[in-house]
Write a structure and sequence with these properties.
It is a single chain. Helices cover 21% and strands 34% of the residues. The chain is α/β, with parallel strands linked by helices and 157 residues long. The protein has one domain: Dihydrofolate Reductase, subunit A (3-Layer(aba) Sandwich), CATH 3.40.430. The strands form 2 sheets. The protein has an 8-stranded mixed beta sheet with strand order 5-4-3-6-1-7-10-9, with helices on both faces. α2 links the parallel β3 and β4. The radius of gyration is 15 Å and the shape is globular. The protein starts with a strand and ends with a strand.
Length: 157
């Protein structure tokens, strides 16, 4: 199953100058707790902001073949993202789509679950998530934290 995991504000802002506009330690902790032991998928630019592979996760980096370089850690490269999505849409393993904006936009139609950290406020941004229709999903849970809440959605059949 493909799951999208993202933090955004009320205007769907997800990034500012190469990183998230907010600093929410608890959001990073819940991201780690959900994704550990799983495969995470991200674009090359998003991966570069991390500076290294995330521990205890297999990282799939979406990149063109000429962008592939040697990277330490449990990392593989994907050169045909649409094919990857189609091949993994019904897998039993939960695979987390972790950004950036273009990767989210391409993956959203294939995702059965959304883990949305809805950040309080309106933040300066230069990168936004494409708006998704919450009517396409059922709410599974809402967990409040200081400065944000995590809403888990399941796609309607």
């Amino acid at each position: 199953m493909l799951s999208l995991i993202v933090a955004h504000d009320k205007n769907f802002a997800i990034g500012y100058q190469g990183w998230m506009p907010w600093r929410l330690k608890e959001d990073l902790q819940q991201f780690k707790a959900k994704t550990e032991g799983h495969t995470v998928v991200m674009g090359l630019n998003t991966f570069k902001t991390l500076k290294k592979a995330l521990p205890d996760r297999h990282t799939v980096i979406v990149a063109y073949p000429d962008q592939v370089t040697e990277i330490d850690g449990d990392v593989s490269f994907c050169h045909d993202f649409k094919k990857f999505l189609e091949e993994n849409v019904d897998t039993e393993e939960e695979i987390f789509i972790c950004g950036g904006a273009s990767i989210y936009d391409q993956a959203l139609p294939y995702c059965k679950k959304l883990y949305i950290s809805l950040v309080d406020g309106d933040w300066p941004a230069d990168t936004w998530l494409k708006k998704y229709d919450v009517n396409d999903f059922d709410i599974i849970s809402v967990n409040p934290y200081t400065g944000f809440k995590v809403i888990e959605y399941l796609k309607k059949d």
